[in-house]
Amino acid sequence: MVEKKSPASGWPIVQGDFHTGDAQSCVGVVTMGSHLDEQGICDAGAAIAGSCKTENLGIEKIIANVISNPNIRFILCCGTEVKGHLSGQSFMALHAGGVSGGKIVGAEGAIPFIENLSDEAIKRFQDQVEMVNIMESEDMGTIKAKIDELKAKDPGAFPEEPMVVEVKEAGGGAAEVAVAGVNPQFLEIEERLNAIEERIEFVDAEMAQRVGRKVGRDIGILYGLVAGLIVFMMLLMLLPKLIGFL
Protein backbone atom coordinates (compact mmCIF):
# COMPACT_ATOMS: atom_id res chain seq x y z
CA MET A 1 0.00 0.00 0.00
CA VAL A 2 1.58 3.29 -1.13
CA GLU A 3 1.73 6.25 1.22
CA LYS A 4 -0.78 9.06 0.79
CA LYS A 5 -0.92 12.60 2.19
CA SER A 6 -3.68 15.09 2.88
CA PRO A 7 -3.81 17.88 0.29
CA ALA A 8 -3.85 21.53 1.34
CA SER A 9 -6.93 22.61 3.26
CA GLY A 10 -9.76 23.52 0.92
CA TRP A 11 -8.16 21.78 -2.07
CA PRO A 12 -8.41 22.59 -4.91
CA ILE A 13 -7.09 25.94 -3.78
CA VAL A 14 -7.64 27.74 -7.11
CA GLN A 15 -11.01 27.86 -8.81
CA GLY A 16 -11.33 27.19 -12.51
CA ASP A 17 -12.93 25.20 -15.31
CA PHE A 18 -12.46 21.73 -13.85
CA HIS A 19 -14.04 18.89 -11.88
CA THR A 20 -12.58 16.98 -8.94
CA GLY A 21 -12.57 13.33 -7.93
CA ASP A 22 -10.59 11.29 -5.42
CA ALA A 23 -7.99 13.66 -3.91
CA GLN A 24 -5.74 10.66 -3.20
CA SER A 25 -5.53 9.67 -6.86
CA CYS A 26 -2.10 9.98 -8.47
CA VAL A 27 -3.49 11.25 -11.80
CA GLY A 28 -4.53 14.74 -12.89
CA VAL A 29 -6.02 15.17 -16.37
CA VAL A 30 -5.82 18.29 -18.56
CA THR A 31 -8.13 18.29 -21.59
CA MET A 32 -6.52 21.40 -23.13
CA GLY A 33 -8.94 23.04 -25.61
CA SER A 34 -11.50 20.24 -25.53
CA HIS A 35 -14.61 20.12 -23.39
CA LEU A 36 -14.88 16.43 -22.58
CA ASP A 37 -16.79 14.64 -19.85
CA GLU A 38 -14.49 15.87 -17.07
CA GLN A 39 -16.73 14.47 -14.34
CA GLY A 40 -16.68 11.10 -16.11
CA ILE A 41 -12.88 11.31 -16.20
CA CYS A 42 -12.83 11.96 -12.44
CA ASP A 43 -15.24 9.09 -11.88
CA ALA A 44 -12.78 6.91 -13.81
CA GLY A 45 -10.09 7.65 -11.23
CA ALA A 46 -8.61 11.12 -11.79
CA ALA A 47 -8.06 13.49 -8.88
CA ILE A 48 -8.88 16.52 -11.02
CA ALA A 49 -9.79 17.10 -14.67
CA GLY A 50 -10.34 20.23 -16.72
CA SER A 51 -9.32 22.33 -19.70
CA CYS A 52 -6.40 24.74 -20.14
CA LYS A 53 -6.97 27.35 -22.82
CA THR A 54 -4.20 29.85 -22.10
CA GLU A 55 -0.44 29.51 -21.94
CA ASN A 56 -0.09 31.73 -18.87
CA LEU A 57 -2.83 31.99 -16.23
CA GLY A 58 -4.38 28.66 -17.26
CA ILE A 59 -1.10 26.83 -16.69
CA GLU A 60 -0.51 28.66 -13.40
CA LYS A 61 -3.88 27.50 -12.04
CA ILE A 62 -3.14 23.88 -12.87
CA ILE A 63 0.29 23.97 -11.25
CA ALA A 64 -1.09 25.65 -8.12
CA ASN A 65 -3.66 22.88 -7.69
CA VAL A 66 -1.13 20.13 -8.41
CA ILE A 67 1.62 21.18 -6.01
CA SER A 68 -0.95 21.69 -3.25
CA ASN A 69 -1.83 17.99 -3.52
CA PRO A 70 1.26 15.75 -3.13
CA ASN A 71 -0.74 12.69 -4.18
CA ILE A 72 -0.83 13.82 -7.84
CA ARG A 73 2.22 12.28 -9.53
CA PHE A 74 1.11 12.16 -13.18
CA ILE A 75 -0.39 14.83 -15.43
CA LEU A 76 -2.23 13.29 -18.39
CA CYS A 77 -2.50 15.80 -21.27
CA CYS A 78 -5.24 14.99 -23.79
CA GLY A 79 -7.75 16.78 -26.00
CA THR A 80 -7.02 19.20 -28.81
CA GLU A 81 -4.38 21.91 -28.86
CA VAL A 82 -5.58 25.51 -28.55
CA LYS A 83 -4.89 27.42 -31.76
CA GLY A 84 -2.63 30.45 -31.28
CA HIS A 85 -2.17 29.97 -27.53
CA LEU A 86 -0.63 26.50 -27.87
CA SER A 87 -1.26 25.91 -24.18
CA GLY A 88 -0.49 22.20 -24.48
CA GLN A 89 2.92 22.69 -26.05
CA SER A 90 3.69 25.51 -23.60
CA PHE A 91 2.68 23.35 -20.63
CA MET A 92 4.95 20.51 -21.74
CA ALA A 93 7.77 23.02 -22.37
CA LEU A 94 7.45 24.45 -18.86
CA HIS A 95 7.82 21.03 -17.29
CA ALA A 96 10.82 20.25 -19.49
CA GLY A 97 12.69 23.56 -19.39
CA GLY A 98 11.18 25.74 -16.69
CA VAL A 99 11.00 29.52 -16.89
CA SER A 100 13.67 32.11 -17.68
CA GLY A 101 13.04 35.83 -17.27
CA GLY A 102 9.37 35.15 -16.68
CA LYS A 103 8.96 33.34 -20.00
CA ILE A 104 8.46 29.60 -20.45
CA VAL A 105 11.61 28.18 -22.06
CA GLY A 106 10.85 26.66 -25.45
CA ALA A 107 7.16 27.66 -25.45
CA GLU A 108 5.65 28.45 -28.85
CA GLY A 109 2.47 30.09 -27.57
CA ALA A 110 1.81 33.80 -28.11
CA ILE A 111 2.16 34.97 -24.49
CA PRO A 112 3.89 32.24 -22.44
CA PHE A 113 4.67 34.41 -19.42
CA ILE A 114 4.45 33.16 -15.83
CA GLU A 115 3.81 35.84 -13.18
CA ASN A 116 2.35 34.07 -10.15
CA LEU A 117 4.74 31.14 -9.65
CA SER A 118 8.17 31.32 -8.05
CA ASP A 119 11.13 29.29 -9.25
CA GLU A 120 10.62 27.12 -6.19
CA ALA A 121 7.01 26.38 -7.15
CA ILE A 122 7.98 25.52 -10.72
CA LYS A 123 10.80 23.25 -9.51
CA ARG A 124 8.36 21.53 -7.14
CA PHE A 125 5.98 20.90 -10.05
CA GLN A 126 8.78 19.47 -12.19
CA ASP A 127 9.93 17.17 -9.40
CA GLN A 128 6.47 16.06 -8.27
CA VAL A 129 4.86 14.95 -11.52
CA GLU A 130 5.57 13.08 -14.71
CA MET A 131 3.93 14.45 -17.86
CA VAL A 132 2.06 11.97 -20.06
CA ASN A 133 1.15 13.27 -23.50
CA ILE A 134 -1.73 11.78 -25.51
CA MET A 135 -2.84 15.14 -26.91
CA GLU A 136 -5.26 15.20 -29.84
CA SER A 137 -7.01 12.18 -28.35
CA GLU A 138 -10.57 12.85 -27.22
CA ASP A 139 -11.57 9.21 -26.98
CA MET A 140 -12.89 8.53 -23.48
CA GLY A 141 -11.95 4.85 -23.68
CA THR A 142 -8.33 5.74 -24.44
CA ILE A 143 -8.22 8.33 -21.65
CA LYS A 144 -9.74 6.01 -19.05
CA ALA A 145 -7.37 3.18 -20.04
CA LYS A 146 -4.39 5.50 -19.60
CA ILE A 147 -5.66 6.57 -16.17
CA ASP A 148 -5.86 2.91 -15.13
CA GLU A 149 -2.33 2.34 -16.45
CA LEU A 150 -0.92 5.28 -14.49
CA LYS A 151 -2.77 4.38 -11.29
CA ALA A 152 -1.18 0.94 -11.47
CA LYS A 153 2.23 2.71 -11.36
CA ASP A 154 1.34 4.97 -8.42
CA PRO A 155 4.63 5.75 -6.61
CA GLY A 156 2.82 7.20 -3.61
CA ALA A 157 2.60 10.78 -2.43
CA PHE A 158 5.44 13.22 -3.08
CA PRO A 159 7.55 13.25 0.12
CA GLU A 160 7.19 16.99 0.77
CA GLU A 161 4.17 18.75 2.27
CA PRO A 162 1.59 20.57 0.10
CA MET A 163 2.85 23.85 -1.35
CA VAL A 164 0.30 26.66 -1.44
CA VAL A 165 0.68 29.55 -3.89
CA GLU A 166 -1.66 32.42 -4.72
CA VAL A 167 -2.71 32.93 -8.32
CA LYS A 168 -4.01 36.45 -8.97
CA GLU A 169 -6.19 37.06 -11.99
CA ALA A 170 -5.94 40.23 -14.06
CA GLY A 171 -8.71 42.76 -13.70
CA GLY A 172 -9.93 41.34 -10.41
CA GLY A 173 -11.11 38.04 -11.84
CA ALA A 174 -11.23 38.19 -15.63
CA ALA A 175 -11.28 34.54 -16.55
CA GLU A 176 -7.98 33.53 -18.07
CA VAL A 177 -7.64 36.59 -20.27
CA ALA A 178 -4.10 37.65 -19.42
CA VAL A 179 -1.53 37.61 -16.67
CA ALA A 180 -1.33 40.58 -14.34
CA GLY A 181 1.43 43.01 -15.24
CA VAL A 182 1.91 41.86 -18.82
CA ASN A 183 2.83 44.47 -21.41
CA PRO A 184 -0.37 45.98 -22.98
CA GLN A 185 0.96 45.03 -26.41
CA PHE A 186 0.78 41.40 -25.36
CA LEU A 187 -2.83 41.90 -24.26
CA GLU A 188 -3.67 43.30 -27.68
CA ILE A 189 -2.00 40.32 -29.34
CA GLU A 190 -4.00 37.93 -27.19
CA GLU A 191 -7.27 39.69 -28.02
CA ARG A 192 -6.44 39.37 -31.71
CA LEU A 193 -5.61 35.68 -31.24
CA ASN A 194 -8.95 35.11 -29.56
CA ALA A 195 -10.71 36.83 -32.46
CA ILE A 196 -8.75 34.73 -34.97
CA GLU A 197 -9.59 31.56 -33.05
CA GLU A 198 -13.31 32.41 -33.12
CA ARG A 199 -13.08 33.12 -36.85
CA ILE A 200 -11.28 29.81 -37.48
CA GLU A 201 -13.99 27.92 -35.58
CA PHE A 202 -16.66 29.71 -37.65
CA VAL A 203 -14.90 28.87 -40.92
CA ASP A 204 -14.48 25.23 -39.84
CA ALA A 205 -18.20 24.99 -39.12
CA GLU A 206 -19.10 26.68 -42.42
CA MET A 207 -16.83 24.30 -44.37
CA ALA A 208 -18.41 21.32 -42.63
CA GLN A 209 -21.88 22.56 -43.62
CA ARG A 210 -20.81 23.11 -47.23
CA VAL A 211 -19.23 19.67 -47.42
CA GLY A 212 -22.42 18.20 -45.99
CA ARG A 213 -24.55 19.99 -48.59
CA LYS A 214 -22.24 18.89 -51.40
CA VAL A 215 -22.32 15.27 -50.23
CA GLY A 216 -26.12 15.43 -50.01
CA ARG A 217 -26.33 16.84 -53.55
CA ASP A 218 -23.98 14.18 -54.93
CA ILE A 219 -25.96 11.41 -53.24
CA GLY A 220 -29.16 12.83 -54.75
CA ILE A 221 -27.61 12.85 -58.22
CA LEU A 222 -26.41 9.27 -57.74
CA TYR A 223 -29.87 8.10 -56.66
CA GLY A 224 -31.37 9.81 -59.71
CA LEU A 225 -28.92 8.10 -62.06
CA VAL A 226 -29.57 4.69 -60.50
CA ALA A 227 -33.34 5.18 -60.73
CA GLY A 228 -33.04 6.29 -64.35
CA LEU A 229 -30.87 3.28 -65.18
CA ILE A 230 -33.39 0.90 -63.60
CA VAL A 231 -36.26 2.43 -65.61
CA PHE A 232 -34.18 2.20 -68.81
CA MET A 233 -33.40 -1.49 -68.18
CA MET A 234 -37.05 -2.22 -67.52
CA LEU A 235 -38.00 -0.55 -70.81
CA LEU A 236 -35.43 -2.60 -72.69
CA MET A 237 -36.89 -5.78 -71.20
CA LEU A 238 -40.50 -4.80 -71.88
CA LEU A 239 -39.98 -3.29 -75.33
CA PRO A 240 -39.87 -6.63 -77.28
CA LYS A 241 -43.09 -7.72 -75.58
CA LEU A 242 -44.77 -4.43 -76.39
CA ILE A 243 -43.67 -4.66 -80.04
CA GLY A 244 -44.99 -8.27 -80.27
CA PHE A 245 -48.27 -7.26 -78.72
CA LEU A 246 -48.68 -4.45 -81.23
Q: Could you describe the 3D structure shown?
A:
This is Multifunctional fusion protein. Part of a complex that catalyzes the formation of methyl-coenzyme M and tetrahydromethanopterin from coenzyme M and methyl-tetrahydromethanopterin. This is an energy-conserving, sodium-ion translocating step. Its cofactor is 5-hydroxybenzimidazolylcob(I)amide. 5-hydroxybenzimidazolylcob(I)amide binds at residue 85. It catalyses: 5-methyl-5,6,7,8-tetrahydromethanopterin + coenzyme M + 2 Na(+)(in) = 5,6,7,8-tetrahydromethanopterin + methyl-coenzyme M + 2 Na(+)(out). The chain folds into two domains: 18-153, Rossmann fold (3-Layer(aba) Sandwich), CATH 3.40.50; 179-245. It is built from six helices and seven strands; from the N terminus they run ββαβαβαββαβαα. Helix 2 (57-67) crosses helix 4 (119-128). The model is unreliable at 172-182 (pLDDT under 50). With 246 residues, the chain is α/β, with parallel strands linked by helices. The N and C termini lie far apart (95 Å). Helices cover 46% and strands 9% of the residues.
Write the layout of secondary structure elements.
Layout lengths: L17 E3 L6 E4 L7 H6 L4 E3 L6 H11 L6 E4 L9 H11 L1 E2 L2 E2 L14 H10 L1 E4 L6 H12 L32 H62 L1
Parallel strand pairs: 2-3, 2-4, 4-7
Antiparallel strand pairs: 1-3, 5-6
GO molecular function, one term: cobalt ion binding
Family: Belongs to the MtrG family. Belongs to the MtrA family.
Function: Part of a complex that catalyzes the formation of methyl-coenzyme M and tetrahydromethanopterin from coenzyme M and methyl-tetrahydromethanopterin. This is an energy-conserving, sodium-ion translocating step.
